[in-house]
Amino acid sequence: MDAKERMHIPYQEMPEQPASERVHNFDEVNQGYSEQQALAEADRCLQCKKAPCREGCPVNIDIPGFIAMLREKKFAEAAAKIHKDNSFPAICGRVCPQERQCQAVCVVGKKGEAVGIGHLERFLGDWLMAHEDDEGVHTGSAQQPAPTGRKVAVVGSGPSSLTVAGELARKGHEVTIFEALHTPGGVMVFGIPQFRLPKEIVAWEIGQLAHVGVEIRTNMVIGKTLTVDQLMEAQGYDAVFLGLGAGSPIFMGLPGENLRGVYSANEFLTRVNLMHAYRDDYDTPIRKARRVAVVGGGNTAMDASRCAIRLGAEQVTLVYRRSRVEMPARIEEIRHAEEEGLNFQFLTNPVRFLGKEDVEGMECIRMELGEPGRDGRRRPQPIEGSEFVIEADQVIIAIGARVSPLAPLAAAGAQLDDRGHIITDPETLATTRPGVFAGGDVIGSEETIIAAMRDGRKAARAIDQYLSTRSS
What we know:
The chain has helices at residues 3-7, 19-22, 35-42, 52-56, 63-71, 75-83, 89-95, 117-130, 159-169, 187-190, 199-207, 228-234, 265-273, 299-310, 331-339, 407-411, 449-468; strands at 151-155, 174-178, 215-217, 239-242, 248-249, 262-264, 291-295, 315-319, 343-345, 348-355, 359-372, 378-382, 388-391, 394-397, 401-402, 436-438. By secondary structure, it is of the alpha/beta class. It folds into three domains: 3-19 and 27-130, Orthogonal Bundle (Fumarate Reductase Iron-sulfur Protein, Chain B, domain 2), CATH 1.10.1060.10; 151-247 and 403-468, FAD/NAD(P)-binding domain (3-Layer(bba) Sandwich); 249-401, FAD/NAD(P)-binding domain, CATH 3.50.50.
């Protein structure tokens, strides 16, 4: 087929669990492409020579290359090509904001629907999991490299840390991950709900690191259980990577914020996801509310809202101080939430929380968009006299998170900025302490999994170079 013919191939819609059913369960919403759908969608790719989609990918995956192989049904080869740049295709294919990255610059998308690059990546990630035991199929980590004799400690097990660990282990370094929680995966397990990213997918992709010898030690709080000094001086680690994430919730400082039933999204989603409050066979303490109000406009706010719906709330209202156009959440997540009955209150902001001991409502004020601020976004301003009350017996604050308060302890002398982020060299992600590197949310990077992975790859290259210059 020529380019003109390919442009006429219809976009393959991702099969979804119907909204009327999914509001009653935590099963995955998107069902994945069939082989036939994947092949049809791959045929839409124009195989552009300059490949703007590749430039739009934070980790520079060879998108035309893997799609060309997929088109020829060379699924193992296509998956291996992705693995050269991205060790977690089944994860990224589900949660990356492709519509703002690779698909945003897809040439096909200029005249119609962009090629479903994320859906194709997910298809190959899932295919790899289903065929891992087949002869000739591997994840790109089957061959053990020659040991270098160098040891690297990786703090945290979110996407940046996992990427660092995998990259360095494949170069022959001895890598140990130290995770504060009892389960590895960071935000991918405690923040993202099962219906968007199943826990078994995360566990499988993390499990692949064992094939190259990565050790994961849980319940290890670096800065408390062990210090960086102890890791480097007493335990002989030659380098340390700090991927601590952003685990400290941001509140609004409003009257009534300490009422019972006012949660941070961090706590609410951790109880639901990591502590399995969504499962009947777990007795996780969580407030089952009738009317829920969620404050925020990002993916975390969407996740919290959709979890509350599934936990049985009769009404869930999302309050966002800007308009729908400015919402940072993925378009797909907003659509899914809308289908599931989420009530949106745009250009609205909380003023105070009402109640005696338990929260009973949230007083809000209408907003209007004023002049643009330094970031180019129009600033929301309150409309005097427009106050009103939303009844709620649970409120979830989802307006972001700060760096973990353990960061200064874990950084062990590395310099921090005035917001608590660890200061790093932008090219190498080296901190001001020799041998210590950092990446992801703890250095103030973009709050996406793929951006954290980009940090991980950059740091891994720098750490490998640093280790090569060290004397034996």
